[in-house]
Write a structure and sequence with these properties.
With 520 residues, the chain is α+β, with helices and mostly antiparallel strands. It has 18 helices and 18 strands.
Length: 520
């Protein structure tokens, strides 16, 4: 048993969070007219009266009056209450005996406290996903971040009948009670019947999918997906197996392009001799790297460079980036915060984060503001082709979660490489691995460095990919910055052009299916 515990502990230690992806589930709110039964405790005197009736079988009103020391009026009030609640009936000889309802509450003579069954009619609102008709947590969706990837609704469930919806609610009403009542009240309440069901508004419900990696035998990696609806900072609402299977189907349809440089070329291009040790026949041994990382064997030999697994905005990575930024700006008057350039990777779920990414932006902005009130912050560079339809969808996807977006026309096509340069301070280079070829989930892996030589390599790759830029403009800017504020043309070595579209453009209409605009 001790050996088993050690093995389980070691496996838990080697499990690493590699990504957190936010998706939008199609859902619809319904309103039900429900009848409920609730078991409520009786007043003390009525409860003991019922106990006497169950124990003795019958009792005369005068004996009940003497037992409790009541006057005539108090006796009549007690009896009227027992009759009204159908707990007692009058026998032919004038005695009081337990009703069939009260007797049904006594299980084989067990000493159970009698209770009152109360019938109540009330309207209930519930939210069901439109992939499997699972009950979702009903919460306030007015602050839902739009622009996250949306899963398309099942066409048949979009036309679900009232009977289907009522049946789904009947099967899952217990979960509804647990999320809308106190624990004590939920345990005492039962669904009696559903009178009517009315369709309300259609919603997009955000969910978080935590991707963890666990190395296993034969140099393979197990991918663990934990999908849930987030409730506050701590609590999570788990999803059903059927709904998780629908989400897996969606991920399986996403295409991750193999165009661009390979991982082996990435290591060569950026001089990453550590990651290169795990590459053979253009295959990266992620399992071996994860195990060696836990054994502290994947270091770069100095504190100026460190490995980074997962998106930069994951909490552990964000804390490290924040620490590096603070240290870079502390105690050196000649170091002022410059622009932060982010070149995205061409993968379907890049920056698909509803909470971690905005939190990353907020924390980085906070550090920069304490150092320089006029900082520009994070500027995302989007290589774009003229008349490219992705221009609209890209803007709709990210303008609510990234502060500034620049369209760079005719820049080199992006691939699985992702770069982030903190101008003059440090830089990050990552490559998006695809651990499972049947899923569109990718895991970025690479390094963060302030080493001058390694930084120069990253900056040179960034400039090389932008050298063919023929035009550029501001797609959006949260605080209405212009091109001169956001784009250091001399640093990026982009040819100067007529800045015809230097101001942020008016937001374009959002597609109805792919991206969410506002909560209804």
């Amino acid at each position: 048993m001790d050996n088993l515990n050690i093995d389980l502990d070691s496996r838990q230690e080697t499990r690493r969070t590699a990504n957190v992806i936010s998706l939008m589930l199609p859902a619809r709110m319904y309103e039900f007219e429900c009848s409920w039964t609730t078991e409520q405790p009786l007043p003390a005197m009525e409860e003991f009266s019922c106990r006497l009736l169950l124990m003795l079988g019958a009792i005369y009103p005068n004996d009940l009056q003497k037992y409790f020391g009541l006057n005539n009026q108090e006796r009549e009030v007690l009896l009227a209450s027992l009759f009204e609640k159908r707990l007692a009936v009058i026998d032919t000889d004038g005695s009081i005996k337990p009703s069939s309802l009260l007797q049904a509450k006594s299980v084989n003579g067990a000493d159970l406290a009698p209770s009152l069954t109360v019938f109540e009619e009330r309207q209930e609102k519930a939210v069901f996903d439109l992939l499997s008709l699972q009950l979702l947590l009903k919460t306030n969706y007015s602050g839902t971040p739009w622009g996250l990837p949306e899963i398309e609704a099942d066409s048949e469930l979009m036309k679900a009948s009232q009977d289907q919806i009522c049946e789904a609610f009947s099967r899952q009403y217990r979960a509804h009670l647990e999320n809308t009542r106190s624990l004590h009240e939920a345990q005492k309440t039962r669904l009696y019947k559903i009178g009517q069901c009315q369709q309300q508004r259609t919603l997009q419900v955000p969910i978080d999918m935590v991707i963890e990696l666990e190395p296993i035998r034969d140099h393979d990696v197990r991918i663990i997906r934990d999908v849930s609806q987030k409730v506050g900072e701590v609590r999570k609402f788990p999803l059903s197996n059927e709904l998780e299977a629908k989400i897996a189907d969606y991920l399986g349809k996403l295409n991750v392009s193999d165009e661009g440089i390979s991982f082996e070329k990435f290591c060569e291009l950026f001089g990453d001799e550590v990651l290169a040790r795990y590459v053979s026949d253009n295959r990266f041994d992620l399992s071996a790297w994860l195990l060696d990382r836990d054994r502290k064997k994947t270091g770069y030999g100095n504190p100026n460079t460190r490995a980074i697994l997962g998106p930069v905005y994951l909490k552990n990575n964000r804390l490290e980036v924040e620490r590096w930024l603070k240290n870079s700006l502390t105690g050196s008057e000649d170091k002022k915060p410059g622009r932060i350039y982010w070149l995205p990777a061409n993968v379907p779920l890049w920056a698909a984060s509803g909470s971690e990414l905005p939190e990353f932006i907020a924390h980085i902005d906070g550090v920069l503001k304490r150092s320089n009130d006029s900082h520009e912050g994070l500027v995302t560079l989007f290589p774009t082709e003229h008349n490219d339809n992705n221009f609209i969808s890209r803007k709709n996807a990210f303008s609510n979660r990234l502060p500034h977006g620049i369209a760079l026309y005719n820049a080199s096509t992006i691939d699985r490489v992702e770069l982030m340069v903190f101008q003059g301070l440090f830089a990050i280079a990552q490559y998006h691995l695809q651990p499972n070829k049947t899923s569109g989930i990718t895991v970025p892996i690479g390094f963060m460095t302030s080493d001058p030589d390694r930084m120069a390599r990253i900056e040179n790759v960034l400039k090389e990919r932008l050298k063919t830029v023929s035009n550029y403009n501001v797609m959006w800017s949260r605080d209405k910055r212009n091109l001169d504020d956001l784009l250091d043309i001399d640093y990026l070595q982009i040819a100067k052009i007529n800045q015809k579209h230097s101001q942020p453009q008016k937001p374009l209409a959002l597609p109805l299916v792919t991206y969410k605009n506002k909560a209804n």
